Predict the structure.
Amino acid sequence: MRILKYLFLLLLLSLVALSIFVATQKGNFTIERSKIINSPKSSVFNYVNDFKNWGDWNSLAVEDSLINITYSNNTIGIGSSCSWNGKQGNGELQTISIKENESILQTMNFNGNSADVSLSFKDTLGKTKVSWKAKGKMGFLFKVLTTFNGGADKLFGTMFENSLNILDKKLDYEINTYSVNVNGVVKKMETFYLAQTFTSEFSKVGKNSGIVFSKITTFCKKNNITISGKPFVIYHNYDTKNELTKLSICIPIKSPIFLMEGSDIVSDTLKSFEAVKTTLKGDYSHTKKALDKALEYLRVNHLRPDTVFSHLEIYSIGKNDIKNPSKWITEIYYPTSQKFLYKPAVTLPKATEEETPKVKEGNEIPAEF
């Protein structure tokens, strides 16, 4: 009996000593890992910047088949977030700042432990160096966990390494799997649509398009306007030398609308026209290849493009339909000079600020095609 008391006392003293040891360990931690991802920088950035993809590349989710993930209504850019509960605990991640195609700053809470998280993206000859850093503070229980698992750097570092490896493999297929097919000359049927027109640098088209697509869609819902088809963009001019374009972001509607003037949204009609159609299946980073192939078809077949506008892109299957970039479908139309009519715009009434938010230069929302 006395031996049992001594053993119990020894165990108790060991636990006290362990607790004191753990409590005196540093609670602050900094972990950083980097990897070269075999995909273009903009594609990697856009994929990571959308929380809809988080469960497909973060090892916490990939290695836990029973994990439950909840996403915010907006999953892209500043203010977007996701939370989860799984076999390794509960957590929440929120994006607080981004620099387009350069960096993403987030805050994380995992099992009661907080951290500031940053991801940076650097172009390396067509590939991307992703650097992932977390800096935070651990509570007592997490100190115990890391003590018995080689420390915070090993525990979190392994998770970072596994996640970056998964990201590379995922994107190597999803971003780099694509096809371009020139369908030939087709007739594009008449379309009624709502649109907003502006001039943009090539690099900011995606960001601003996402804002405007969302704005027009919200306008339709508020005013009970029936959307009839997939979103599209009319590129009125396309200056490759200066990388500038004037474009109209368009949502097709069932019938034309004639209302009061004063809104930056207009109601317009695109009359039927003949065009060279080219279909891109895959990520938007391959759009230039599709444009080049379409222009080559025009040249080889001695077809004269109609200069009323440069070209039109329809997002038949986009990221709102399916999150796999390899399955996105973009239809590109270069109008020829035959049988083309274009009806002047009719302006819509001036809407409230809530109905028609302005496109701000600093807003970091990528396209929602």
Remarks:
- Helices lie at 2-23, 41-48, 54-57, 59-62, 140-147, 152-174, 205-222, 287-300.
